[in-house]
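Deliverable D4.2, example record:
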Amino acid sequence: MEMLQKVEALISSMTQAEKAQVLLWIARDLGGAFSGIDSDPAIAGGEPCIVRTRIPVWLLVQARKLGATEAGLLESYPSLRAEDLVNAWAYYRLHRDEIEKQITENEAA
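Output generated by the structure prediction step:
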């Protein structure tokens, strides 16, 4: 139980972004699920999107590549939270080929 008390003390001193990152690590460790990102065939053709939204990860990644800041993205998409962007960037790092392919396909359309 001592370990859990240490973890609780650490978590209480973390920023929201740090807590979001820890949640990502825990989610991945527990079974490969990706917290905050969902792929539903009925939404955006099954492309991975931010949960609670229809905003695809590829769109956020492409906007970032084109110079959008995180603050700008949060302002442009009021339904997004800072932790959603953390999730999107982490998802992109692990699924770079998939997201790059979606960017290419959607830019060509």
